[in-house]
Amino acid sequence: MKKILMLFIAVSLVYSCKSTKDANASTNTAEKSIEKKIQQSWVLENLNGKPVTEKDFSSLPKIEMKASTFSGSTGCNAIKGNLFSKDAGQIQFLNFTSETKKCEAKKEGEFVQLLKTTSGYSIENNKLLLSNQFGPTMLFKKGK
């Protein structure tokens, strides 16, 4: 009976170590898959096919992207969260948090909702195009 119990414990330990290793590997893969060229500061230029101005927002929204996180501003409220990507060209903004100051930004809600539904991206001519399941949603230029 002792031998069977010892065998069961040994097998359990081996499998628990393996599953921890697999979980760590998948986390590292997710972080590495966010391309270096997207890891920078971006300023919103276009929202749902229309150019944005400071009349639409208190100031133009900005996003700073890093390997697995993002931060920025909606033009009024600070935002932050995590980035996730399965493959190049795919991205999600997760664990989204935002301040809740009252603002005169007419399009802040639309901007936030589009970020939350983003599923893809492409970069051409120093411009970042975000898209969701319905197509292109926002265009950003490189920030400073």
UniProtKB/TrEMBL annotation:
It comes from the Bacteria. Transmembrane segments: none annotated. Residues 38-140 form the DUF306 domain. Coiled coil: none annotated. Gene3D superfamilies: 2.40.128.270. This is META domain-containing protein.
